[in-house]
Amino acid sequence: MKPNVIGEILSIIPQERVLTDLADRYTFSYDASFGEYLPDVVVQPHTTEEISRLVKLANREIIPVYPRGSATSLSGGPLPVKGGMVLDMSRMNQKLEIDTENMLAIVSPGVLTADIHRQAEEAGLFYPPDPSSSHVSTIGGNLLENSSGPKGLKYGTTKEYVIGLEVVTPMGDVIRTGGKTVKNVTGYDLTRLIVGSEGTLGIVTEAILRLIPKPPSRKTLLAAFDRFEDSGYAITRILSSGILPAAMELMDQACIRAVENYQPSGLPVEAEALIIIEVDGHPAAVEEEIRRCEEICRGQGANTVTVARDEKERETIWKARKMVSPAITQMGPTKISEDATVPRSQIPAMMKRLRQIADKYRLNLVVFGHAGDGNLHPNIITDKRNEEEMKRVEDAVTEIFEAAVELGGTLSGEHGIGVLKAPYMEMELGPIGLDMMKKIKEAWDPNQILNPGKIFPEPGQTRVVLRQNES
């Protein structure tokens, strides 16, 4: 980057918030996915005005700009694949206001999602989106990836709870979309366009989130099955019985054992599958629904069913589920995380395909996910230093996505497309659908400076090449 550009950045941002040393920049070269890309400079803005000025500078000099929160992305969302400027948004965390009268939260993008949960619940309210990384992930990152977590089954995804945004556009202008009203049909729904856009259409500097009343009661159940297929049948039977759980999670045997090795939680390691079910609502309804869930699980072959007796036991069950991602990182030096999503009825078929793929390519593949909405998380544990094995991983990843699309599913339920899934976009959307998205990007970002290299495949790119995904 030219010295005069660094000088101009320093005229906008104090020197202590501009990182140019190699060691500092390296810290921002990776995320929770795969690959390392060194930025030219890292800037830590505190205000919307600072971001606006930086983006206008980047447009004039044609410098790539990469917004970044806590870097928990599993698809390479914030990776600076073309160098340039990383905007560390985690420092922009000054505002977290709970408006109880309107049942809203007004937040800065760097606020941790778990802090929103805590303050909303203290006010008797509830923010349902709850990704596993909520204790460390920023709300700005969650919004731009549309990450929702287990409660999407009953309450919907993140986009249903974002009703207003302040955004710096790719040209450096500041706009507001939506507002504090629940109903708003004035013009195009730009709020929904930006949510899930993975930082390619704008930089969120403030968000207005819809909250709902906190459910008065909840119960959690853990059921263990000797056969994976039986857990799938239990899931579909519960959903077809008229019960709509707040969450319904699935763990295969490899997940169970990984969690027990990482942080023993008393899980049955001989079980082929576990499902965790949580119901919430009126206390009488909750008691009846959790009893019916227990009956259905036992009727479908569960060998043990445990209903949490109190909040401590409930937290122990959910802690085990949230430990899956860190636990499986102990199984090997490299973890490739995916989230292919299929219709609920196709979960058993997708699980069968995943097992066939793992056997075909001789890979260690672990599966967990949000079973109630078909959002499965196949994780391949490998070693990026083994080039021959990485070639097999690439082939396996391609087949996983092909299987999901063939079964009527989608490439991603919540991790986003980022770098790792970009080559497969046309497979799901078709050439015309993908071209329509490109036209939106070109209209908003004519200089292609905002998070370039994401979502859209490079010319001629039809599959991921993990062996060359580092620079």
Q: What descriptive keywords fit this protein?
A:
about 475 residues; alpha+beta; Uridine Diphospho-n-acetylenolpyruvylglucosamine Reductase, domain 3; Alpha-Beta Plaits; seven-stranded antiparallel β-sheet; five-stranded antiparallel β-sheet; 18 strands; about 35% helix; about 20% strand; globular
Percent of residues in helices: 25-40%
Strand numbers in spatial order across the main sheet = 15-12-14-13-17-18-16
User: Quick one: CATH class of the largest domain?
Assistant: Alpha Beta
The total count of helices amounts to: 15
Overall shape: it is globular
Low-confidence stretches: none
Our estimate of the beta-strand percent is 15-25%
The CATH architecture of the largest domain would be 2-Layer Sandwich
Backbone CA Rg: 22 Å
Average pLDDT confidence is 94
Number of strands: 18
CATH topology of the largest domain: Uridine Diphospho-n-acetylenolpyruvylglucosamine Reductase, domain 3
List the helices and strands and how they pair.
Blueprint: H1 3-12, E1 18-19, H2 22-27, E2 41-43, H3 48-61, E3 65-68, E4 85-88, E5 96-99, E6 104-107, H4 113-122, E7 125-126, H5 139-145, H6 152-155, E8 162-168, E9 174-178, H7 190-194, E10 203-210, E11 212-213, E12 217-225, H8 228-240, E13 247-252, H9 253-262, E14 273-281, H10 283-299, E15 302-307, H11 311-322, H12 324-328, E16 334-337, H13 347-360, E17 364-370, E18 375-382, H14 387-406, H15 425-444
